[in-house]
Amino acid sequence: MKNSRSNRGRKNPLAEINVIPLVDVILVLLLIFMVAAPMLQMGIDVNLPRVAARTVDVGEEKLVLTINSDKEIYINRYKASLDDLNQKLESIFAARIDREIFMRADETVPYGFVVQVMSEVRKAGVDRLGMITDPPKE
């Protein structure tokens, strides 16, 4: 009898894990990522010309050459100059089977400069050169 009275005041340990705080933290993190993800922008900012053209499937990793409005040249995200563009492209395509590149140029870049860059790309041994544009506004 003495034993049963002494157990009344003691609490037995709870064997369940309280998951409500964990769920709260996960929901807050999910909300933060959902709000922040659209704000992340990759690449270099250029104003592409708007033309009607057929879309190209670029699902796999493609090489994109970008010319911004300041005539700066980027290979994917890495800056290059017009003088060393040929050498960099040759070294990149030495290990690749497909020799294709896609070019994005700001609409304010002079046509002559774009042609110079295209010439250097061709000298590097590129088989296919695609131009990236935006669809026209309706």
Q: Please indicate the count of domains.
A: 2
Give me the number of helical elements.
4
Q: Which band does the percent of strand residues land in? A: 5-15%
Mean pLDDT: 79
The strands making up the biggest β-sheet line up spatially as 3-2-1-4-5
Global morphology: elongated
Q: What is the CATH architecture descriptor of the largest domain?
A: 2-Layer Sandwich
Q: In CATH, what is the class of the largest domain?
A: Alpha Beta
CATH fold-level topology of the largest domain: Nucleotidyltransferase, domain 5
Radius of gyration: 29 Å
Order of helices and strands: HHEEEHEHE
Detail the poorly predicted runs.
Answer: none
Word description of this protein:
- The chain is α/β, with parallel strands linked by helices and 138 residues long.
- The chain has two domains: 38 residues, no CATH class; 68 residues, Nucleotidyltransferase, domain 5, CATH 3.30.420.
- The protein is built from four helices and five strands.
- A five-stranded mixed β-sheet has the order 3-2-1-4-5, with helices on one face.
- Strand 2 and strand 3 form a beta hairpin.
- The termini are far apart.
- The relative contact order is 0.17.
Topology record:
Layout: H1 2-8, H2 20-36, E1 64-67, E2 73-75, E3 78-80, H3 85-93, E4 100-105, H4 111-123, E5 128-131
Pick out its properties:
Nucleotidyltransferase, domain 5; 5-stranded mixed beta sheet; elongated; 33% helix; 5 strands; alpha/beta; 138 residues
How would you summarize this macromolecular structure in one to three sentences?
With 138 residues, this protein is α/β, with parallel strands linked by helices. The protein has 2 domains: 38 residues, no CATH class; 68 residues, Nucleotidyltransferase, domain 5 (2-Layer Sandwich), CATH 3.30.420.270. It contains 4 helices and 5 strands.
